[in-house]
Design brief:
With 167 residues, this protein is α+β, with helices and mostly antiparallel strands. Helices cover 22% and strands 34% of the residues.
């Protein structure tokens, strides 16, 4: 779904057999905190200047309904039809553009607004999966990373099978 005019968001989607994301590093006396999913999708999301609350439902609808997941018969179905888990990772580096030998991120949305849109995106994904009977019956989960923090990802994919989608 190409955006008319400059992109307002970018998502990178990968099929996953399993994924584990460190959302908090180890600290004194405390182990690292991880979230994990099984078969499903890993969604990296970045919002650009000009993105607003009206864009989020369009992104969620596209990403959860597009036929990117391969089922046991080799057919491509949506993550809702698989059904599969979803891991959402905020990824500001998707907004980078090279300038000389460095990357610049001038198109990225302001941090506070990006956090609001990311939170809305996560909440809406959770609601969509909770409203899908097939997903509820299968016990699928939405897990997510923490906005604005460096995180460690461990991903087993049955590909690589990666798509970049702009909105």
């Amino acid at each position: 779904m190409a955006a008319a005019g400059p992109a307002r968001a970018r998502a990178l989607v990968q099929q996953s057999l399993s994924a584990r994301l460190q959302v908090r590093p180890p600290e004194r006396g405390a182990e690292a905190q991880w979230v994990e999913i099984q078969r499903g999708l890993v969604i990296y999301i970045c919002f650009f200047k000009g993105a607003d609350e009206d864009l989020v439902p369009k992104i969620v609808n596209m990403l959860l309904n597009v036929k990117l997941s391969e089922n046991e018969n080799g057919e491509f179905v949506s993550v809702l039809d698989l059904p599969g888990d979803v891991l959402i990772i905020p990824q500001a580096t998707l907004g980078g553009k090279p300038k000389g030998r460095k990357m610049q991120y001038h198109a990225n949305i302001e941090k506070e607004k990006g956090f609001e849109l990311y939170s809305q995106f996560v909440t809406l994904c959770e609601k969509e999966l909770a409203a899908n009977a097939k997903c509820v019956e299968a016990g699928v989960r939405v897990k997510h990373g923490t906005y604005g923090n460096r995180q460690v990802l461990k991903l087993d994919t049955n590909g690589p099978y990666t798509h970049l989608i702009e909105f």
